[in-house]
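Hi all, a correction to my earlier message: I attached the wrong file for Isocitrate dehydrogenase. Here's the right sequence:
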Amino acid sequence: MTQTITVIHGDGIGPEIMDATLHVLDAMKLDLAYEYADAGMVAMEKTGELLPAATMDSIRKNRIALKSPLTTPVGGGFSSINVELRKRFDLYANVRPAKSFPNTLTRFPADVDVITVRENTEGAYSAEGQETAADGQSAISVTRTTRKGSERIVRYAFDLARAAGRKKVTVVHKANILKSTSGLFLKTAREVAALYPDIECEEMIVDNACMQLVMRPEQFDVLVTTNLFGDIISDLCAGLIGGLGLIPGANIGADAAIFEAVHGTAPDIAGQGKANPCALLLGAAQMLDHLGKPEDATRLRKAIVATLEAKDSLTGDLGGTGTTMGFAKAIASRV
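and the right structure:
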């Protein structure tokens, strides 16, 4: 049966990496249909809205979206289009794998394989209750942590670990200082961990976790943490394997899921064919796993690895001279 997905081309380099990704997906003959929708500056220019109702309706109907990076303009409105999408569809789980790839510019050997599971809808990152005093001398923002939010993200992490054959989940927190908010997260995590005796659970304070990731990343398997810590840690993990050009992101809720490249729009190279499409391609692989097509997801990942090993048409950030679409065609030839 044909699966229809919402496709958002995005801003900056977004259209280039999306076209490259769709080229590879089409070569795989996956019986996917695309419903195109706009968001970001492209949507603003067309409709006067950053998130048009038609785009929201498309995601709601198809329940699956593949999204390129978006620009949120400075000023009024949303603090972030991505944050707004997560809130509207209750996409509570942000999943970012960081795995070593061959022939990438990294200081670490090929043994990094970490999945960061980040709570995606609450906490400090949600920027709830932001307010600046009239005199500009102080500002406040509310950090809200709930038992429900903590429980479901930790359950998600342990379920993911079990399904993927992972052996350990590390709960990252700051409960030694943030005793109420991070304390509630840690207490809830301990209760959930007790339900998974087959999975090792360790606890680590966030600053130590960052240091340990830089020193010995091979000791980690699955990390689960709160929204702001997860945002920072997942980018740190990207640095371990060569940068954000190799990191996908899944935003998953009960009724919808959005898969994306987590890097920015890179307007300085937009339209030049220089962008690396790997992050969005790996996001597409996450999408295929979510759609119950694990064999196809594996096929796509293996084709990416084989192309990197062959140094075939690699883009400049990977040390090559290839173009975005040229790289994609090299991957498509191997799927």
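Sorry for the mix-up. The mean pLDDT is 94.
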